[in-house]
Amino acid sequence: MASPPSACLHIEAAPALDLLTVPQVMARLQLGRSAVYDLLRTRQLASITLGRARGIPVHALTDFIRTRLEQEAA
What we know:
The protein has helices at residues 22-29, 33-41, 58-73; strands spanning 19-20, 48-50, 53-57. The chain is of the alpha+beta class.
């Protein structure tokens, strides 16, 4: 006699939040370390702090670039 299938909960995990390091952002924007930290300090570029490390969400970098492009076009 087969037992009824057990109920399965499908919990969808939040989409993975890809974080970039400061050196990765430096390479993508072709800026120096001080310039990237100035963007973070002035909150032009969003970041999170994990311990002593800074993480910049990919979408924050994309939003920053999009905003700068729109400002340049205006």
